[in-house]
Structures are given as structure tokens and as C-alpha cells.
Design brief:
Largest sheet: none
Structural class: mainly alpha
Oligomer: single chain
Strand content: under 5%
Number of strands: 0
Length: 307
């Protein structure tokens, strides 16, 4: 899939979802229903396909550490800015989810070979599975539990939510039980189910997205887009240099960190009732703007001789 074909496909689905909602062709509960299917059916299928292929190597330490260090940095920045600018709890939660977590699977896996070559793709898979996904299943659920209720959850409550979150359960199953190569009889079924993840999630985002956000969401939107598309990739470039990663790893780290906000994280925030309009806007506008910023980051890597 060509770079702009991938973006056009995703944006077309978001636009279609917006049209369906605008014309009242779907009920108001449709986005929540689609998000539930994504989180509890499609995402587990994608995990069963990809996670068993991971093999640990000592050389991957820096690659795996990078997204977690970016998570720490983005959390500090978001919490600080949220307090200074007095963001709502819902907006703060969405930024905590969407700034560090990017669309590192669908767009990442489609674009990394085109932007950095096929060698970088296998490192992008490691970044996604041991970085983005584990952060969604642990940090993401912690944020949801912390900000969605009136009573702050205990450590036991957070652990219980994480260990009963179906995608996390399937990740453990994939790593501990599934063979490295998915059986021939099972792979086609999983591919069909996993393939529905992006269309369903993008349609749900479009159904919830509004072109005119309430005034109070504008500053969080600007901060989220700047943090996700500019600040995080810049920090990733520094970390990749400090870790001494080879060119393919460095490209994977920088470009994966520069991917637009994660659709699945937005779905999770929406289901919890945490600023669904802001979550949808970050994904929609972030995807559109990343069509410009990703080629710029690729050009910067090439200009520096890192590709």
C-alpha cells in the first residue's frame, strides 16, 4: 500500500462514519458498539497473529526501552500542562492516552517499509507489540480507571482490570501458548477478523468526530497534536542516538513515535466517557496532519544519513 493510499483509505473511512452520523443513518450507540467489537474481537485476533512471532534479543533493549521512556516524558509534560492550563479530567486522560500511543500497527506496518525499507518493519513490530500494545494494556487501563470514576482505584483494582482485559489475556496466551507460526487452519480466520479492526474503529471515530470542537477542547487538541507529531519524534531521535541504535532500528523508533494517535486508545477513552469528541478529533486531525509530518521526519532521517 502506497503512503498516501493508506492515509486516503483511513480518512475516507472517518469521513464515511461522519456522514453516517450526520445523516442519522446509525443510532447514537453505534460508535460504542463498534468500539466494543474492536477491543474485544478484532484486537485479540491481531494479537494472536503477531505476538507469537516476537523473539527476544539483547540488541532490542534500546528499541523496547524507547517507547516506555517516551511514555514517561509525555506523561510528565501532559500532567504539567494540564495543571497549568486547567484542563478537565477527561481532556487530561485523553492526552495521557493519545500523546504516547500512536497508530503503530495499521499505519505503522503499512508505512514503515515505504518510508524506511523492509528491514525496519520487523523492528516496528517489536516497537508496537512490546511498546504500544503493552502500554495500552497497562498504562492505558490505569489512566481509564484513574480518571473515569469518582473514587480513585486501588492497585488491586487496576491489576484486576488489566488481567481481565481480553486483549491483555490474549497477549499472554499468544506469548506463552501459541506457536510462532499460526496454524494454517487458524491463520485465515484470524486475518479476516483482524482485518476488520481498522475499518470498524475508523468508522466509529468518524461518527464521534465534529469539525467544530467546543472552545475548551482547542488547547488540549493543539497540545496533543504538537506533542504526538513533533515533540515525541524529536525525543525519539535523541533516545535512538543515545542508545546507539543501528539505522533500521533508529528509523523504526522515530517513525513509529511519529505515527498519529492510536485509534484503539481513542475507542477505549470513548467507551469510558472521557472526552470522546477530543479523542476523535485527535485521531482525525492527527491522521490528516501526519500525512505531512511523517515524510518530513523521513526526510530529516535521510538528510542526517540515518536511512
Amino acid at each position: 500500500m502506497q503512503i498516501y493510499t493508506a492515509f486516503a483509505f483511513l480518512l475516507s473511512l472517518i469521513a464515511l462514519g461522519r456522514l453516517l452520523a450526520w445523516r442519522r443513518l446509525v443510532p447514537d450507540s453505534a460508535p460504542d458498539a463498534l468500539n466494543l467489537v474492536v477491543l474485544y474481537v478484532c484486537l485479540p485476533a491481531a494479537i494472536l497473529l503477531n505476538a507469537p512471532k516476537l523473539h527476544w534479543q539483547a540488541s532490542l533493549v534500546g528499541l523496547v526501552a524507547a517507547p516506555w521512556l517516551l511514555l514517561l516524558a509525555s506523561t510528565f509534560i501532559v500532567v504539567l500542562c494540564a495543571r497549568l492550563l486547567r484542563f478537565s479530567r477527561g481532556d487530561t486522560a485523553v492526552l495521557l492516552l493519545e500523546v504516547p500511543l500512536g497508530n503503530t500497527s495499521f499505519l505503522g506496518f503499512a508505512l514503515i517499509p515505504l518510508l524506511a525499507g523492509s528491514e525496519a518493519l520487523r523492528y516496528a513490530v517489536v516497537y508496537d507489540q512490546l511498546g504500544s500494545f503493552l502500554m495500552l494494556a497497562s498504562f492505558g487501563l490505569t489512566v481509564i480507571a484513574w480518571y473515569s470514576g469518582g473514587v480513585r482505584p486501588t492497585v488491586a483494582t487496576i491489576l484486576r482490570r488489566m488481567l481481565t482485559f481480553p486483549p491483555f489475556v490474549f497477549l499472554l496466551f499468544a506469548l506463552l501458548v501459541m506457536p510462532a507460526e499460526t496454524p494454517d487452519w487458524l491463520a485465515p480466520m484470524l486475518q479476516q477478523i483482524a482485518g476488520a479492526l481498522l475499518p470498524l474503529a475508523a468508522l466509529a471515530i468518524g461518527m464521534q468526530m465534529t469539525l467544530r470542537l467546543p472552545r475548551e477542547h482547542l488547547k488540549p487538541l493543539a497540545l496533543g497534536l504538537f506533542g504526538k507529531l513533533v515533540l515525541l519524534p524529536a525525543l525519539a531521535l535523541v533516545l535512538a542516538a543515545l542508545f546507539g541504535l543501528d539505522p533500521a532500528m533508529r528509523a523504526a523508533v522515530v517513525l513509529e513515535s511519529a505515527m498519529p494517535p492510536m485509534i484503539t486508545a481513542a475507542a477505549l477513552a470513548s467507551l469510558a466517557g472521557l472526552s470522546p469528541q477530543l479523542a476523535a478529533a485527535l485521531v482525525g486531525y492527527g491522521t490528516l496532519l501526519s500525512a505531512l509530518t511523517l515524510p518530513l521526519w523521513r526526510w530529516m532521517l535521510a538528510a542526517a544519513g540515518l536511512l
